[in-house]
Amino acid sequence: MAEEQGSPPAADAPTGAATAPEARKERDRPWIIRTYAGHSSPAESNALYRRNLAKGQTGLSVAFDLPTQTGYDPDHVLARGEVGKVGVPVAHLGDMRALFDQLPVEKMNTSMTINATAMWLLALYQVVAEEQGADPALLNGTTQNDIIKEYLSRGTYVFPPGPSLRLITDLIAYTVTEIPKWNPINVCSYHLQEAGATPVQELAYSICTVIAVLDAVVASGQVPAERLGDVCARISFFVNAGVRFVEELCKMRAFVALWDDLLRTRYGVRNPKHRRFRYGVQVNSLGLTEAQPENNVIRIVLEALGVTLSKDARCRALQLPAWNEALGLPRPWDQQWSMRIQQILAYETDLLEYEDIFTGSVVVERRVGELVEAAKAEIDRVQAMGGAVAAVESGYMKSQLVGSQAARRARIESGEDVVVGVNRFTETEPNPLLADLDTAIQTVDPAVEEAARTSLAGWKARRDPAAVDEALLALREAAKTEANLVPATLACARAGVTTGEWSGVLREVFGEYRAPTGVSGVAVGATAGAGGGELALVRARVTATGDELGRRLKVLIGKPGLDGHSNGAEQIAVRARDAGFEVVYQGIRLTPEQIVAAAVQEDVHLVGLSILSGSHLELVPQVLDGLRAAGLGDVPVVVGGIIPDRDADTLRAAGVAAVYTPKDYGLTDIMSGFVDIIRAANSLP
Q1: Which of 261, 183, 173 is nearest to 223 (CA)?
Q2: In the chain, how many H helices and how many E strands?
Q3: Residue 282 and which of 137, 336, 545, 581 are 20 to 30 A apart at CA?
C-alpha cells in the first residue's frame, strides 16, 4: 500500500541523507547558442533573427551571400543567380541598418562569417552601432577574417595573400584599442575538414595560420610589444566536429595544448588568460547525407558531444546544421530543431555540472599526445617552406587536402568507411519528413535579386556623389601607403559607398588572385583503391572510346558563379584523370561565358558543372545557351550539386544530360556515366 504523503518513513526504511533530495551541483554557464542564418534580404533575415532570439538563441551568426563575401554588388555580372541564396546580401549601410533593425547590437554577441571583406562589414556594423547610440568599445562579437583557409577550401578570397594579410593586420590593430571586446579574427579549421583535412592537418594548418597572422602583426609595428597578449586573447577559433566524436574530443584537447605552447614559446605570452583557447563550432555538414536524411539528427547530436563533453576543451559557442541541409536551405522549423538539441544538452542533461570527466584517461591522453606530436611535425614542415602563405602559393597545403579528400572518398566507395543509409543499411521505410519534398526545404524567391538591384539603384540615387568620390579617393590613396585602412573604410561606410565600390578600389590597388587548385599535385592513381577493378574497366572504356573518336577523351569541369565550395569538383577532376580522361579544370568563380570559351578552346567532349550555392537554375541555362551559340550544342553538359528533384527535372528538360547530387557517392560510377553520355552524344553503340 502506498504511504500517505507526509507520513513518517516505514520502520525498515533507511534514514538520513539518502532520503533527502540530492543537492544539485552548481552548473557552468552554457556556451553561446547560435544558428547560422541569413537569406533573401536584410528585412527577411532580421525577422528570422528576432524569431530565433525569442526561441532562446543567445547569439547571432550572420550568413552573408556570396556577392557580399566576395566584394560584389547585386548588379555585377558575377552576382547573377547568387543574390540572397546562401546568406543575406549587404551592399551598403542601409542594408546593415535593416539587418539589425530593433536589435540592440551593444548588448549582443554577433558572429559574422566574412573574410575577404571583413574590414568592410565590421565598419558597416560599427556605424550602425553608433547610429543606435552604442559605444563601439562595448561591441562584442567576431569577424571570421581567416583568409588562409579561403585559399584552401571555401574560396571566398579576393586579393593576393600579401594584401589580404595586411587587411587582417590592420583590423586587428584597430580593434585591440577601439573595439577591445571584439574578436577580429576567427581562425577557421571548419572548412579544412570539409575539404578533406585529417585531424592532424586541421591542427597543423590552423596553427600555421596563426603564426602567419601574429608574425604579420608584429612586423607591422602597429601593436606595442606589451599589448601582444591582448591580441592573442582576442584571437578565437572556429572548428569542425565530425561524427568520430572521441577523436574530435581529443583533437580539441590537442588544440588547447598546441595553442598554449605556441603563445608561451614563440611569442612570450605570460598571462594564462591571454593563452586561453577560445573556440566556436559548427558541426560537420560534409557528413550529412541526402539519403535517409533523418539519420543526420543523431549525427548532429554526437558531433555536438565531441565539443561539449570535455570541460577543459569545451566550446564557447556552438551552431548546429539542420537535418536537411544536404537537400537544400533549411526552414526556420529545421533550425529550431537544431537549436533545441543544444538547449536539451545545456539545460536538461547534467553535462555542465562536473569537472572534466576525461582528466586522467589513459586512452584520451595517449591519443591527444599522438595528435600533438604529428601536428608539430607538419607545422615544422610548413614553416620550413616559409610558412602558411608560401605553402598556399606553392599549392602544397591545397594538394594535401585534395589528396586526403580523395582517400576519404575511396574509403567510402570501398565500404571501408561505413555511412549508414548510403553505402550500407540502405533499405528504408518511406520518410514522412519528405512526404512533400517541395516543402521540405526553404526556397528563395527569384524576385529577391531584382529587388536587391532596384534597392541598390535607389541607394545610389539618394547619396551625395561628391562625398562618395572623396571617400573612395582617400581609400585608394591610403591603400598605396602603409596606413591602417580602417579609418578610410569607416569614412566610406558613412559616405554611402557600396560593397562593390569598396572592394573595387582595393582590387585596382592590390590586384586579384587565383589560388592553386591542388588537383595537379595529387599523384596519378591516388583513387585506384576505390574499387580498383571497376576503375580499370572504366579506364579501358575511356581508351577505347577515344580510339573510336580519334583522340583522347577530354572533359571540362567548370565552377560557374561565385560558389567557392570546390571539393566536389576537385574530386571529380581527380577521379576523371585517374579514369584516363584529359581534364580541364580552371578553378572557381567563372562566368558562363568563360566556361563556354574554355569549352571551345579546349575542344572538349563533355562539360561538367558543379554548383552548390543554389544558383543552378540561373547559371546552367546560360552555359547551355552559350554552347549552342558557339556551335557546340552537341557537347553534352552534366551538372552536380545540391539540387532538388524538381530542379533536376527542369535542368534535364533544358538539355542537361545528367544531374548528380550527394547521394551519387560512387565517383567511378559517375565516370562510367560520362563515357555512356559521350558515346550517346557521338552516336556510338
Answers
A1: 173
A2: 25, 15
A3: 137
Sign of CA dihedral 289, 292, 293, 295: negative
- Please say if 565 is a catalytic residue: yes
What phi, psi does 554 have (nearest 5°)? Answer: -130, 130
Residue environment code for 257-268, b if the CB has 16+ CB neighbours within 10 A, otherwise e: bbbeebbeeebe
The beta-carbon contacts of 412-415 under 8 Å, at least 24 apart in sequence, are: 412/665, 413/530, 413/531, 413/665, 413/666, 413/667, 413/668, 414/529, 414/530, 414/531
Q: In the predicted model, is pLDDT for residue 528 greater than 80?
A: no
Tens digit of pLDDT for each residue in 213-223?
999 999 999 99
- Out of 190, 513, 660, 665, the active site residue is 190
pTM: predicted TM-score of the whole model, two decimal places: 0.89
Residue at grid coordinates 583522347: 552
Catalytic hit among 85, 554, 559, 605: 559
92 catalytic? Reply is no
Listing DSSP states for 107-169 in one string gives: G-EEEEE-STTHHHHHHHHHHHHHHTT--GGG-EEEE----HHIIIII----S-HHHHHHHHH
User: Measured between alpha carbons, how far is 561 from 611 in angstroms, rounded to an integer?
Assistant: 8
List CB contacts of 481: < 8 A, sequence separation 6 or more.
Answer: none
Which residues neighbour 629 within 8 Å (Cβ) at sequence distance 6 or greater? 596
Per-residue DSSP letter, 289: -
39 is catalytic: no
Q: Are 651 and 616 in contact (CB under 8 A)?
A: yes
Q: Report the Cα 552 to chain-centroid distance in Å.
A: 36
Q: Are 93 and 127 in contact (CB under 8 A)?
A: yes
267 is catalytic: no
Of the candidates 324, 327, 402, the residue with the CA atom closest to the CA atom of residue 569:
402
For residues 322-341, average pLDDT: 90
Least confident segment among 10-14, 371-375, 469-473: 10-14
Confidence grade of residue 524 (pLDDT, cut at 50, 70, 90): low
- Establish whether 76 is a catalytic residue: no
Q: Report residue 388 CA to chain centroid gap.
A: 19
Q: Using pLDDT thresholds of 50, 70 and 90, give the confidence band for residue 14.
A: very low
Catalytic residue among 76, 92, 149, 191: 191
Query: Could you say which of 95, 334, 563, 647 is catalytic?
Result: 563
3-class secondary-structure state, position 33: strand
The mean of the pLDDT values for the chain is: 91
Query: Judging by DSSP bridges, how do beta strands 60-63 and 36-37 pair with one another?
Result: parallel
660 catalytically annotated: no
The owner of cell 586522467 is: 360
Query: In this model, does residue 18 exceed pLDDT 90?
Result: no
Alpha carbons 70 and 451: distance in angstroms, whole number: 20
Q: What pLDDT, in 10s, does the model give residues 396-423?
A: 999 999 999 989 988 998 999 999 999 9
Nearest-angstrom CA–CA distance, 168 and 220? 11
DSSP of 318-350: EE---TTTTTSBPPHHHHHHHHHHHHIIIIISS
Sheet containing 36-37: order of strands: 36-37, 60-63, 109-113, 140-143, 182-183
Per-residue pLDDT of 626-668, as tens digits, reads: 999 999 999 999 999 989 889 999 999 999 999 999 888 899 9
CA angle 192, 183, 133 (to 5 degrees): 140
Q: Is the dihedral of CA 451, 455, 461, 467 positive or negative?
A: negative
Task: Please name the helix (run of DSSP H) or strand (run of DSSP E) that holds residue 209, with its range, or none.
Answer: helix 199-220
> Which backbone phi and psi does 386 adopt, to 5 degrees?
115, 5
Confidence at residue 2, expressed as pLDDT on a 0 to 100 scale: 37
